[in-house]
Design a protein that fits this description.
- By secondary structure, the protein is of the alpha/beta class.
- The chain has two domains: 67 residues, Multidrug-efflux Transporter Regulator, Chain: A, Domain 2 (Orthogonal Bundle); 155 residues, Mannitol-specific EII, Chain A (3-Layer(aba) Sandwich).
- It has ten helices and seven strands.
- The model has no long low-confidence stretch (mean pLDDT 91).
Length: 240
């Protein structure tokens, strides 16, 4: 995995032109450095910046990021990738998660149980560090949790988890809104990570979807709701 990303890499993530990407970078707080005469950015700074800014993109721009990052990762942007990943992992309904700390512990242990990582404590530390930088909780009531620096972990396989606690809880969302849905993203490939991040943001733009999935009481029921929503997103183009 490369430690550094170029402006061209970021343009591919966003699915936009290099001039437009340079404008976006200029207005951001991304810090660049020079490597062999080229302007580069640290991989984790870029991925965390994208995670924090995807919610502000228009539906069309978010769709472009979804499709472009999928193409770069060799994926089919018109397949139900989120549904497939969740069907291979698990939708969990823990009954003893009432704080941010308990959610992060549960998720870390679950990742070990699913064989994605071997050290729950190491993963937990990276998740905590990411939340300290900026909370991964979104205004919609979901959190897209991921490590601050996945390169510090030994990831055996990719993993997407969905955790639905019995009640919403404070997770650090800027306005103070409680969080009800928790996704864990473990994707060492940055293009895969950005694609999943963009696709989840598209799914979560429907309040009806969020309210419906919160009423699910089994893995199968939640998965069916995700599948239906993902089909809607794929067929609707940018109007998701």
């Amino acid at each position: 995995m490369s430690v550094f990303l170029t402006e061209t890499d970021i343009a591919r993530f966003l699915g936009q032109s290099l001039p437009d990407t340079r404008k976006a970078i200029k207005s951001s707080k991304l810090k660049s450095m020079s490597k062999q005469g080229h302007k580069v950015f640290t991989r984790e700074d870029v991925l965390n910046w994208l995670a924090d800014n995807f919610t502000s993109l228009t539906s069309d721009r978010l769709m472009m990021a979804d499709h472009s990052s999928a193409d770069s990762a060799g994926l089919d942007p018109f397949s139900c990738g989120i549904t497939r990943l969740l069907s291979e992992s698990e939708v969990s309904f823990p009954d003893k998660t009432s704080t941010r700390a308990s959610v992060l512990r549960f998720i870390s242990n679950k990742a070990v149980e699913r064989g994605a990582v071997y050290d729950a404590a190491e993963l937990l530390e990276q998740l905590k560090k990411r939340e300290i930088v900026v909370s991964t909780a979104l205004k919609c009531g979901a959190a897209l949790i991921h490590p601050l620096d996945i390169r510090q972990l030994y990831v055996e396989k990719e993993l997407l988890l969905l955790i639905i606690p019995p009640r919403p809880l404070p997770f650090g969302e800027a306005s103070g809104r409680l969080t009800s849905l928790f996704f864990l993203l473990l994707f060492p490939d940055p293009h895969r990570h950005v694609h999943i991040l963009a696709r989840l943001n598209r799914l979560l733009r429907s309040t009806d979807f969020i309210e419906t999935i919160l009423r699910a009481d089994s893995h199968e029921e939640a998965l069916d709701m995700v599948y239906r929503r993902e089909l809607d997103v794929i067929s609707s183009g940018g109007k998701s």
